[in-house]
Amino acid sequence: MTENAEYIKSISNLLVARYPNGARAYIRTYGCQQNVSDGEKMKGFALQMGYTLTDSADDADFVLYNTCAVRENAEDRVFGNLGALKHNKEKNPGMIIAICGCMVQQEHIAQKIKQSYPHVDLIFGTHLLGEFPRLVFEVLSNAKRVLDLSEQQTDIPENLPVKREGTLKAWIPIMYGCDNFCTYCIVPYVRGREKSRKSEHIVKEFTELVHQGYKEITLLGQNVNSYGKGLEENITFPQLLDKLATIPGDFRIRFMTSHPKDATHELIDVMQKHDKICKHFHLPVQCGSDEILKRMNRHYDTTQYLELIDYARSKMPDISFTSDIIVGFPGETRKDFEGTLELIKRVEYDSLYTFIYSPRVGTIAASMPDPISAQEKSAWFRELLDVQNKIGPKRLKKYEGNTYRVLVESKAKEDGCVTGRTDTNMVVNIPGGEELIGQFVTVKIKHARNCALDGELVIGAAGK
Ligand code: 5AD
Ligand code: SF4
């Protein structure tokens, strides 16, 4: 038996003895899709240990917060929730409270939790996902607190159990960590150096998902475009995509996130080559000022970025672009900010993820002078949203009258309707029954709303 299997067996024996009516686990994930994917693995482990999963911390015997550190507000929410759990522990003293992920990989946060939140039993870092059974066993069997932030030096653990969130869409991490050290970003410090999974493991997991009937598979990494670096095999991200897109079956592929400095024409050519690769490109620009991009350590300028956009549009005129934007980076001036406005008007993104800069302890930007007031940054932020709120609906108008292939995902809010997405990632509402969920259908767009489309089924035609 493997070490993990032994721990899991011991845990399940302990749980049966301690909770004759069954033990419940609540596992809550904050932050990015990578975290969601890690959370699915911890849920997989919890089920193997004998826990049933619950949606509420209030009736749980084991609570785990899988946290994010990218911005301060994500951390504040976790501290609030962690504080509230004190009452749960008073009612159920045997319960275990655990916290893991990027937030606690920061030493000062781990120490703060250790000292100020004595009801927390287990604190562990981002490198220990594969050792989750050992950590839970140590807490359960010794009834003492465990803090472990050690960095794993071995290979990426494969074949961990997974409890996927859905039956239609799935996520596959293809790499972990980040080597880019953008000056505002905490990720390289909390997730460590970039490590790619071997392509044979990815292809195997991908093929299994296709056989299980998953229709949309998203490849994940902090910078998928540098996939392959450090592997013994010679493989790039476009080559991996090309390989996956030739696997037989009825599915589509998405990927994120792309760093503009590593996104190449070769990648765009592979996207164009395969119908199975969604024509949606999340290409975070962060800012439209070359001076700020330099200080962000992004290694591209707006000219190079726009060249990439233009090349992609010349090959795939209907491609959709989305981006991340940070407003109020230290030292950003009104003129720099206007550069961002200009750039988003020029690119015409389909949607944007917008953030006000949040200083992160230990990053280079956190010690840069930052004279602009929080109020002014908020005003710029609102201005940015106003501009984008005109661009988004304009982009959607272009869909009216055309037909598209839509993957139906769920029931819509409106009675008698279902909702799905085009491969450009636009939400479409369609009159139809639940039997359509999980199917690719052809839809004619009747009307564009502000952030979604209304369409109707077309029988016997192929959509874009
Ligand atoms: N402040 C604000 N936004 C940030 N992001 C990363 N770090 C910070 C920070 N310190 C944003 C970037 C990144 C996205 C995931 O989060 O835009 O692309
Ligand atoms: Fe952070 Fe930059 Fe790495 Fe993205 S590429 S995770 S923004 S350091």
Please tell me about this protein's structure.
With 464 residues, this protein is an alpha/beta fold. The protein contains 14 helices and 19 strands. It has helices spanning 3-18, 33-49, 72-91, 102-105, 107-116, 132-142, 187-191, 199-211, 237-245, 265-273, 290-295, 302-315, 334-347, 374-397, and strands at residues 23-29, 51-53, 62-67, 96-101, 122-124, 146-148, 169-173, 175-176, 195-196, 216-220, 252-256, 280-282, 320-327, 351-356, 403-411, 417-421, 427-431, 440-448, 453-457. A six-stranded parallel beta sheet has the order 2-1-3-4-5-6, with helices on both faces. Strand 1, helix 2 and strand 2 form a beta-alpha-beta unit. Helix 10 (265-273) runs parallel beside helix 12 and helix 13 (334-347) packs parallel to helix 14. The longest helix is centred in the last third of the chain and has 24 residues, at 374-397. The model has no long low-confidence stretch (mean pLDDT 95). The protein binds 5'-deoxyadenosine and iron/sulfur cluster. Iron/sulfur cluster (SF4) binds next to helix 7.
